[in-house]
Amino acid sequence: MPWKIVEKMDRPNLFGLLDTWILCAIFLVLASLYGFSFERGNFNTNVGAGVNGLASGEAGVSTLIKAQNTAVYLLSVACIFPYIKLMSRQLRQNVWIFSVLGWTILSVLWSDIPQTSAVNALRMTIDLMLVLYLFDRFSANDIQKLIMLVGCVAAAGSIVMVFVFPQYGLQSRGLYALGAWEGIFGHKNICGQAMILLLLPAFFVRLHGTYARILRGGYIATVLVILIMTRSAGAWISSIFCLGFVALSKLATRMPRKDATAVVVAIAGAAVASGAAIAANFATVMYALGKDPTMTGRTKIWAALLHSILKRPLCGYGFMAFWQPQLKGESANFALHLNLPGYNSADSAIIELALELGIVGLLLYGAVFLGAVRDAFYCLGHGASSAALWYMSILVFVMTSNIVAGALMRPSDLACILPFVAYVGLRREAKRLRQIEPAMVLARLPAAAAVLSY
Model's pTM, two decimal places? Predict the structure, then answer.
C-alpha cells in the first residue's frame, strides 16, 4: 500500500498543550546557539555562542550554558521517544534528505577528534529527529504558530534586555558596532539571523479573527525593528531577499499558475543576474553598505582555509573536529599562518562544511537542497499551499545567509534545524500534490465528456 500524506488538522488548543511550551523553550535555546548567560565587557559578544562562550567564559557561565544544553537534549529525547516508531517510517520515506546526517555520523571514523565528532553527531541526530517529531505531532500551520511563539518570547526578551539591561542587550565590543542590538542573544549577527527565521512564518500562517491579524501585524513590525537595530549587514541582505520572496509569493498566488511559474522563473533569473553584478562590483556594494570589502578580513581567512581543504578534499577532518584548542591539528597551521590564535570559525557555512565533511558532505547537502528546490517548483506549478510558500522562504534564507557566516550542519542551531523542516515539508507537499492530481483529473472527466457529447 503506497504511503499517503495526510495533513493533520490545526489544534484549537495549541497554546494550552504542555508540549507546545516545552518545544518553545527548546527552540528558544536553539535559536540562541547553545543557551543564555549574563556576561559583560568583552565576553558579552560571545554569550550563548557555543565554542567561544565555553572556551573564554568563566567557570560558572560555562556550567550554566552546559546545563541549558543538557536540559534541552533531555527534553528533546523525552518528546521524541514515545513516537520513535512513527518517526522511523518518516525517516525511511526521507532517507535521501537525511543521508547527510549519515555521512556526519560516519565521519567519526576518520575524525581528528573522534569523541568530539561522536558527541556532536549524536546532538545533530536528536536535532533532526525533532523535525520528524514536529510533523508527527503538529499540522504545518501549527508548526508556523509554534515558531511565531518562539519569536514572540525572543522579541519581548530582547526589548527588555536592550532597555532594562543595556549592558547585556547592546553589543559593547570596542568601537565596532558599538550599541548594536543583540537582545537575549550573544551577538548582533546571531540576533539578526534568528529574527529573520522567526519572522518568516508570520507572512504565511493562517489566522482567524481580526484580533489575531492585528497581533500578527504588531509582531511583524516589532521583529523588523529589532532586525534593523542589530546593524548586521548579513542579516539585512538576507532579509531583503526573504522579504522580496514574500512579496513575490503574495503576487504569484493571485495569478494563474502558469503565469505565476513564468514570473518566478523570470525573477529567479533576474536574481542570478543581480548576484553576478554584485559579485563583479563587490567592493562598491560593500562600501555603499558602509562595510569593508574584505568583510573584516574574511576573504583572507577563506583563502587560507582553502589550502586546508585541499589537504583532505573528500572527507574533511571530521564533524566539528577541524578547530582544535591549544594550537593542535591543521587549525594550528591556519592560526600560525594568519597570526590568529584562538580563532575558530570559517565565517562561511560552505567552507565550514567542506572542512568538516569534505566535498562528499558538501555534495550530499547540495543534492538535498536542490531536491527541495525541485519540489518547490513542482508545488508552485500545482497550487502551492501557504505552508509550502513558508518552506520556500526558508530556502531563500539558506541561500542568502550561509555564504558569509552561517552554518549548514551545526548542532543546537535553529538555523540548521528549520531548513530540514523545509526540506521534509516540501517533499511531503510535492507527494501530496502528486497523489491528489490523478483524482483531480478523474473529477474533470465527466464535465469534459458532457462538453464533447453536447
Answer: 0.85
